[in-house]
């Protein structure tokens, strides 16, 4: 569009200059930036996919229509596990996924999604924004030409769907389970076989018996996939994913092509999406749990304390091993572990003490 | 500024049209909206005052300098407890405070800040954004010409500073304590005398013996006020404020004068500030606690289980009484209480089960 056309459409003359030039109606008619967002989730999948849609819409609204973003589900443009490379190469400007999917790039990525017996959602955000976490994440993605942001959190997940009862740690021996990242490593140490599968392939694998168990997210998402039809027991709590952070990374070059205010809008919109997803899951998990238990007669089971205790010991070893892989993993591990120690001490007399007091 | 000057300064011709017209440099040179934000906190007070500053800056940055906001500490333009009326009357465009300060306007306001044995930060956001809370809050502030937003959360607070040991509920009899909102009502039912004081007046009142005890926020803020110099015991957990929400309300008329995209930016910036404060407090409380205990030799004490149990019973009665005050309070009470019941059930097997598992 030529300058003259733009100014005519924007209606300069009848309105104050600034307001008119940024008027959302006129801006909507002519977006200056058309972006693509590739995601690791089925298109419009509740919570994960819809968060990507929400993020795209917020950026458009806050920018007065100057950025338009088209969201692609997994496989629509690239497969779920190729989102990282696609944005790194500039095939798309943004990618929406979970950092532990990229442990093949660097083991350190896992600290930015979920760590067994690690941080809750509230604690993750504290580490990222006020504990040095974001700076390390940016350093980690820099060589790939990507700018990372935290874009959602599921809260404490469920331990998963099992076709075998878990009464002792030995019951995990030989268990073939879909469980990504460090949680999978812990399962391996306990004698099980971790399997990596995109969300969209869990149901059939569980139903066919190709896997014995699977974790996914929590009631809200697990109900949507119908996992209750394919497994007997639903275990809690999600020791392996106590506050899983979702991510949206942005191609560095695409970001630098934006004017300063749009750069701020893109980054800040991710923070809103981060908070929004946690609020959504917190509100919707309980209703879904109710449906699972009362309508679908799902058997809800707590992991025995002794199993949790032993998983914690194995987790500490597995997470410690990551530090030995490379200097960057060590740096991230040290920052994360120090922060965890401090925040656990504080939350022991605040969040935990309160949640227990409420149940007295 | 004339249109021609504006276009020349923005450098149209050498840059893409959209980028140039929204270039933040040019916009910064001529803000179209100059707003005032009055706050209930001492100027630049850590966490509360700095959150207001951050919010103002974010709005300016995201708007490419089209809105500039001057932040006023308590008493600079109006006293702490007159912030609500000031923005309602248009003396300032925005106000930063806590909704329970306005229980004189409507008892229902208290549900939007802190409810004894109510919701945690994560749960509050879930209720506000996905449980119907925000809609009710908007309805409540509408008659005052104000648009409310949640703009911060302290997380679970401390029970407070005491110059008397609390071993039984009877120890609260005759206790003169600074404690606002519904927590104060509960104290009254337990035989104590609640006092309402702005934060800035707590220290001297506690030191002079005008009050026997005071709650404020948590280690980060309490250390900043030096409260440890004026009281013997530091009790936990903050049963009366388990996830205190801060607010920023906006004058409705001022908001409607903004173009659509700036309206979205103002509202969404408040959501970022909301998340940011919780992250800040979560990260900084522990370090402050460490300083209080190790450097200043503060005696940290848990409220006995029996006291908490009885306070919970009194709290349920007091909160229930609010519902009887007027139809709006009843409506908010019912929404809040129903949501609490559901989210407590879910968090019992997720957040709470996990925090306890981590300590096994």
Write up this protein.
- The structure is a homodimer of 360-residue chains.
- By secondary structure, the first copy, chain A, is an alpha/beta fold.
- The first copy, chain A, contains 15 helices and eleven strands.
- Residues 1-29 of chain A have low confidence and may be disordered.
In short:
Chain A has 360 residues and is of the alpha/beta class. Helices cover 48% and strands 14% of the residues of chain A.
Task: Tell me which protein chains meet in the greatest interface and how many residues each side has.
Answer: A-B, 100 and 98 residues
| Structural class by sheet pairing and helices of chain A | alpha/beta
- The neighbouring-strand order within the major sheet of chain A is 7-6-8-5-9-11
The count of β-strands of chain A is 11
Largest sheet entry of chain A: 6 strands, mixed
Q: Return Rg of chain A in Å.
A: 22 Å
Globally, the shape of chain A reads globular
Order of helices and strands of chain A: HHHEHEHEHHEEEHEHEHEEHHEHHH
Poorly predicted regions of chain A are: 1-29
Task: Tell me the span between the first and last alpha carbons of chain A.
Answer: 66 Å
Multimerization state: homodimer
Residue share in β-strands of chain A: 5-15%
What's the rounded overall pLDDT mean of chain A? 91
């Amino acid at each position: 569009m030529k300058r003259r056309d733009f100014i005519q459409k924007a209606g300069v003359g009848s309105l104050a200059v600034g307001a008119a030039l940024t008027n959302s109606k006129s801006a909507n008619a002519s977006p200056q930036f058309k972006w693509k967002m590739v995601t690791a989730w089925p298109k419009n999948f509740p919570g994960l996919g819809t968060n990507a849609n929400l993020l795209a819409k917020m950026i458009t609204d806050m920018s007065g229509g100057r950025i338009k973003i088209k969201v692609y589900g997994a496989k629509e443009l690239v497969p779920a596990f190729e989102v990282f490379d696609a944005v790194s190469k500039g095939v798309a400007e943004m990618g929406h996924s979970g950092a532990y999917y990229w442990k093949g790039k660097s083991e350190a990525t896992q600290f930015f999604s979920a760590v067994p017996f690690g941080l809750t959602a509230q604690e993750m955000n504290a580490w990222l924004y006020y504990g040095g976490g974001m700076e390390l994440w940016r350093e980690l993605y820099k060589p790939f030409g990507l700018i990372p942001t935290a874009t959602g959190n599921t809260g404490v997940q469920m331990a998963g769907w099992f076709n075998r009862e878990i009464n002792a740690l030995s019951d995990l021996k030989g268990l073939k389970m879909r469980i990504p990242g460090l949680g999978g490593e812990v399962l391996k140490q306990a004698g099980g076989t971790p399997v990596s599968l995109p969300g969209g392939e869990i149901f059939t694998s569980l139903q066919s018996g190709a896997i014995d168990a699977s974790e996914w997210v929590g009631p809200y998402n697990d109900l949507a996939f119908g996992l209750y039809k394919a497994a007997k027991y639903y275990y809690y709590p999600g020791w392996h994913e106590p506050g899983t952070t979702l991510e949206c990374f942005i191609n560095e070059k695409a970001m630098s092509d934006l004017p300063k205010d749009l750069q701020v809008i893109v980054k800040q919109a991710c923070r809103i999406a981060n908070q929004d997803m946690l609020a959504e899951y917190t509100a919707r998990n309980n209703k879904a749990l109710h449906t699972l238990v009362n309508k679908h007669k799902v058997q809800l089971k707590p992991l025995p304390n002794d199993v949790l205790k032993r998983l914690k010991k194995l987790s500490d070893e597995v997470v410690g091993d990551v530090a030995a892989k490379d200097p960057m993993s060590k740096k991230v591990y040290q920052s994360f572990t120090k922060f965890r120690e401090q925040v656990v001490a504080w939350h022991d007399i605040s969040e935990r003490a309160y949640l227990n007091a409420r149940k007295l």
